Structures are given as structure tokens and as C-alpha cells.
Amino acid sequence: MDAKERIDQLIKILNKAGYEYYTLNNPTITDQEYDSLMDELIKLETNNPSLVRSDSPTVRIGGEIISDFKKVTHTVPMMSLGDIFNEEEIRDFDEKVKKVVKNPEYVCELKIDGLSVSLIYENGKLVRGATRGDGTIGEDITHNVKTIKNVPLSLPQDIDIEVRGEIYMPLSSFEKLNEERKNKGEKEFANPRNAAAGSVRQLDSKIASERNLATFMYHVPLPHNYDLNTQYQSLEFMKDLTFTVNPNIKKVKDIEGVIEYINYWDKYRKELPYEIDGIVIKVNDYNDQKKLGVTAKVPKWAIAYKFPAEEVLTKLKDIEFCVGRTGKITPRADLDPVRLSGSIVRSATLNNQDYIKEKDIRIGDIVSIRKAGEIIPEVVEVKFDRRDGNEIPFKMIENCPICGSKLVKKAGEVAYFCLNTSCDARNIESLIHYASRDAMNIEGFGERIVEDFYNMGYLKSISDYYTLKNYKDELMELEGFGEKSISNLLENIENSKNNSLEKLIFGLGIKHVGKKTAKILSEYYKKLENLMNTTIEELSTIPDIGDIIAQSIIDYFNEEANLNLVNSLKENNINMNYIGKEKNINELFLDKTFVLTGTLEKMTRNEAKDLIETLGGKNTSSVSKKTDVVIVGASPGSKYDDALKLGITIWDEDEFISNSRR
């Protein structure tokens, strides 16, 4: 066998082995055999340079160096996709599609967090790889694309075709690369996408080769040239051509299938060996796609759902100060608007002065923010490398921003307080708190209405809620209100009179007394009068009532203004007795800690929590080694995974209900 025949034979064997290893993940020869055959091919090509083929696996080793990146024009523009961020927007997309197409079928694909690439083949041989660029003009990166081991250098058919997909860096390659850079004292890459982008833009292809990049292909720009009628057919066709197509694609019949697919991968995406940042939703049928058409920038037949960001960067424009119902002053970051966890965030808590100084947070800083407990955004850290010297150091205010009173920092407290009980901000926050769902649940009294009624003089104290009925005619004349809306508000106020004691105690806003503590106190004392006449010694004997809470309760009922408020509420026939369920002790629940996750179908989450407490159990929001049982509903979150890892008992909703009746 002469050199040419042996080279051709080795290329055929090695390309087949590479496809089986990198694309099918099903190797048929050992690494040792592969390396031995590769060494033989390298020697033959070195001795016979005229016989080197463009599809030889040796080109994946790299070594080609270019002086710059040539510009290339895409025959078919590489369009970007529009973004959506929640279920409502997913359904809006479906509705728009159904206005043009009846009963659309969708293909769902993982949105790989990498960079787009176009691969062009002539007579089955790779001739060009290019970046997306601006969608019309990209950069020629053929020398680096050839080093990517799951990019076929030749196809099983001698056809002319363009395919498109994503170049990405597997997490294992990313971790290895950053470890190497760290050991060399070089700056580490921020994430796999940046590492992949930096790798394909290397002038020396040997560097790209060492980065262990990979691809997933997902699009054929001219499908009708190959008798392809659907997106799903195109994906299967690319597999037949030996391209790597993501194994997690799914064809679904309707938008419910899309949402189910999204919920599944939102839960399990962290188990993937590569990063994804969303789901791509495409109308499957190409004729339907043609009917829907495109805009100047994006197709109307496809959309990208982006997973909620866990942490994002933005600019801290200013630091403002908020006054709470207890007079506590809380610094708040005024931010450049940014999307976080599915919503637009414009502000974030800064907790207190010590927190700001510890993190050296300044006005003008670029900061990372996240949602604390998935509810309140908080500033996590400052990006010090983004400072330009114009940032303004934090300075704590000395006077209340609303009433101007001198602020006081009490012994043992990290926060400053406005002690002026007549402070407008404190009063408004107290009124809002009293009407909130977990307190007296006076539906309709949101922040805006409470503030408007306060400024107009109708609401100055909590007891004023119950005299609003005397001003019904005047209230109906206010802009934005009418007889029906005012009647509803007054009816809701009347209904609040019948609440159980724990809601009243929480609504009074006693310092350190939260919803859970209010329930404990109500179950123990039964009547507000009993709580008002208690002692600090007795309070301290109640489980979960510590010295600080006990002292706060005593202090509250020692103030004349608070006693007057209680008397006024009593005169307005507010219930002051505990009318909740007495604890029906169940050994499966007694003194055990429960966590709820997912959506319950037979009761609300609050009803489930009340049932747990009625049976002697406790509710917490996070899973730990101290958790006894995790109750799982539909579409559970990471708490379910945590429970599995820790070996914690798991009940579904039916088990929960069954056990509660024992």
C-alpha cells in the first residue's frame, strides 16, 4: 500500500472514530489505538506534504496562523431572536402565531450560551466557518473551526450546504482552562461564553485547538433545497450528515407542551455539562414560518425564552433613605433599570450603614444585584475594576429625610431610627402594614391609596380606617373613585373586624413581632387583654419568644398612645380574641419542621402552612439538615433537589393530606 492509499485509509478510520467519540459519545476504538493511528498519519503527511487533505483530522491540532480576520458576507442573513421572560409573554407569542397559523406545532431547543457560527460545505468538504457578526457581515474563522473536534471536515454526501449553530465551551474545559490561567498568573475568564468567544478569535489556531471547544448545530438556511419541510426534519437531516445536534430537542403539539419543556429545564439545567441561558421556541412547519414572515431584525416564527437571571450588573445612580413604620432608616440603592428574575428592578436594599461600609459601596459604582429570598433585590458586591475615580463615598444622613428629626442609633442596634411618632413616613408605612394581607387583609388599600387618603386627611391613624364610612359621599367624589369602588373598600374594612387575634397583633406593628410570633402569642393568650397585662417573665417562658421580643411587647403596651389606639379599635368593635383553630396534635407533625415547594392543587400555600401549625408543626422557607419533611407540589424548585441530597423525608400533596388526618 502506497503513502496516498494509507493516508486515505487513516483519514477515513480516524474521522469515523472522531465522529463516534465526539458526536455519538460511543467510541469503538481505544484512546491508545486512536493516538497510534494519528501519530502514523502525522508522520506520513510530514513526509508527503503534497498528500495532505483538507479533511485530515491532523488540522484539528491547529498551527495555522493568520494575520487578521477577513470579512465575509452571509448569503442569507443570520438573524437574532426576540426575547421573552415569563409565561404571559410565551402565551402572547402563541396567540400572535395562531392569528396566522391554525394549530401550530412547535420545536423546543436548549439555548446554548455560546456564539453563533455558520459552516459552509462544497462537495461535502468544509470550506468556510464564519461568525454571525452584525447578521449580514461576519468574520472568517475557518482556521479555528477546523480544530473543533465535533465539526465534520467532510460529509457522507458530496453536497453543497450551509448549516448554522453554536460554538460553546463545555464546563469541564472551562474549569480546566481557568485553572491553567490561574497557575500562570493570567486573568481568568468570567464565564464559558467569554472563553469560547475569545478562543475562536485567536489568530493562532493551535490556541483554539487547546481550548477543547464544541458545537451544536440547529439550522439549515435553505431547507427546501434538500426537500425539508419542517425544523424537526432539518435537525434529523443534520444528524444524518454527522453534525452534532443537541439531544434534548423536543417537538410539541401546543404551547402547553412548550411551557412544560421550559419548566423542566429551568429545574434541571444545572445538571447539563454546558451552560444554557434559555429555550428557543420555533414554529415547526416551514410553510407556516413563511406565512408568519420576519421583521427587519427578528423572525416572527421563533422566539427565545430567557431564564430569569440570578445575578446581574447595573449602575448604582444614587443612595436614598426610606423610613419604615418603626422609624428604622434603610438605605436604598437607586439603580439603572435592569431585568432580574423575570422583572425590571430599579432599586435594591442596602440594609444599613455597616453593610455599605463593609462592601465599600459608592454612588456611581457598577454593582451586582440578586434577589434575596427571591423577593427583595439586594446589592451583592461592587465591581471595583470598573471604577473610574468619579464615584462618591457613602455618607450616612443625620436627620430624618421626611420630618427632619435627629436620627438616633440605639445601643445594640446597627440601624438608625427616627423617633418622631408624628413622622409622616412612619405613619403611612404603619397604615399600609395594618391593611396588608398578612395583617388585617383590608383588600384594596395599596400604597398609593393609603398615601392619597393620608395626604387628604382621611387616614391619619389605624383607627381611622373604621371611620372612613362617615365620609363615603366625599370619597366617592374623588378622582378615580366611584360608588362601587368606595363601597367595596368600606365592605372590606367591615370584614376585617372579624379577623382572628393574630392578624390584629401583627397589624399593630409591634417591633420584632412578626406574623409567626403573633400567631404564637394569640394561641397562648387567647385575648388581647391578657397579652396587654402579661409580664416579661411570663413572656420569656413561651417557646420562640426571646428576651428582646418580650421587652418590645412590654414597651409597646406601656405607651399611652398605643393604649389609646387599642381602646379606639375596641370601640369600633374589632375582634380581639383568638378564633383560629386550636392545635390538634398529630405525632407526624408535632415539633417537626416543614418546607413547602411547588404548586399545591387542593389548597393554597397559606392554608397548608396553617394546617401544619394547627397539627403542631413549624414552617420554614429553606431546606437544611434540621428540616424534617419537604412537601412537594407541582413543578417543585431547588428545595426538592436539596431534600434529595440531604435524605430528608418527602411527601407529595396526597401524602400530606392523608397524614394530616391521622
Please state roughly what percent of the residues sit in beta strands, choosing from under 5%, 5-15%, 15-25%, 25-35%, 35-45% or over 45%: 15-25%
Shape field: elongated
Average pLDDT score:
89
Give me the count of strands.
22
Span of the ends, CA to CA: 82 Å
What class would the helix/strand composition place it in? alpha+beta
* Number of helical elements: 24
Regions with pLDDT < 50 over 5+ consecutive residues?
none
Q: Number of domains in the coordinates? A: 6
Fraction of residues in helices?
25-40%
The largest sheet is: 7 strands, antiparallel
Which CATH architecture of the largest domain would you pick? 2-Layer Sandwich
Rg, nearest Å: 33 Å
CATH level 1 name of the largest domain: Alpha Beta
The CATH superfamily title of the largest domain = DNA ligase/mRNA capping enzyme
Tell me the CATH topology of the largest domain. Answer: D-amino Acid Aminotransferase, Chain A, domain 1
Characterization of the model:
The chain has 662 residues and is an alpha+beta fold. It has six domains: 3-53, Helix Hairpins (Orthogonal Bundle); 83-305, 2-Layer Sandwich (D-amino Acid Aminotransferase, Chain A, domain 1); 312-416, OB fold (Dihydrolipoamide Acetyltransferase, E2P), CATH 2.40.50; 424-496, 5' to 3' exonuclease, C-terminal subdomain (DNA polymerase, domain 1, Orthogonal Bundle); 501-571, 5' to 3' exonuclease, C-terminal subdomain (DNA polymerase, domain 1, Orthogonal Bundle); 593-660, BRCT domain (Rossmann fold), CATH 3.40.50.10190. The relative contact order is 0.06. Helix 16 packs across helix 17 (515-525). The strands form five sheets. Strands 12, 13, 14, 15, 16, 17 and 18 form a seven-stranded antiparallel β-sheet that branches. A five-stranded mixed β-sheet has the order 2-11-10-3-9. Strands 5-4-7-8 form a four-stranded antiparallel β-sheet. It is built from 24 helices and 22 strands. The chain is elongated, with a radius of gyration of 33 Å. A hairpin with a 2-residue loop joins strand 4 (115-122) and strand 5 (125-131). The protein starts with a helix and ends with a helix. The mean pLDDT is 89.
